[in-house]
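Quick one: co-fold with S-adenosylmethionine.
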Amino acid sequence: MAGDDPDILRRPQQKPPLIQFLSIAFRNMKTVGTICPSSPMLARALAQSVIETSSPKRVLEVGPGTGPMTKEILRALRPGDEFDVVELSSEFCHELEARILAPWRRQSPGVRITLHNAAIQEADLDAASYDCVVCGLPFNNFDHELVESIMRRMLELLRPGGELSYFCYLGAKTMKSTVIDEAGRRNLRAIKRLEDELHLTHSGSREVVLANFPPAEVRRLRKP
Ligand SMILES: C[S@@+](CC[C@H](N)C(=O)[O-])C[C@H]1O[C@@H](n2cnc3c(N)ncnc32)[C@H](O)[C@@H]1O
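Sure, here it is.
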């Protein structure tokens, strides 16, 4: 059954997800943005809105990597739910499909799961149709114009009343500011201004998750 905890998530894999994650992350540091996948506690906090939203629901995940958030989301889905996953890296897509999505589809045919190997800015998705958007993108690595266009896109994809959750590492902007140039610091300040503005205009809330490396903060925005 879709809500149960299927064996497939506990089976040993050929290559441990962490090794897989590291090998792809080191080659794509700008878009992956970290050397460690999210902990189960951070993944659960990010998937909270999916857990709390009643079915049928439509869920979008952006930037799953090796899939810690994907697994939490899948556990909260029921027959009749729809789940779109958008991942830029074809290597991560391949891993995710083979290790998590294909086995889950076989086990829970009532849940429609679609993987899009694309950038979220370009993926072919229906506007204003998702109840929950869960995002794992490393915004502090991006230009602020890109962060703004991705944020606006994700909010546009949410239906009114739907929730977007994303995360950032605690103190990341402050620490990063000490090792980058003035243009980089201006970029981080612009990202922070955007995040603060969206927090105010979209009933923002924040939750600290210490049980992650590095400790993180989950941010939630609700579409008016
Ligand atoms: C920090 S990793 C997050 C991995 C995973 N969500 C986790 O929490 O462990 C960021 C992921 O976002 C993907 N990504 C980066 N830019 C993207 C974009 N514009 N659209 C979709 N995925 C993107 C990267 O390829 C990478 O898999």
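If it helps, The chain has nine helices and seven strands.
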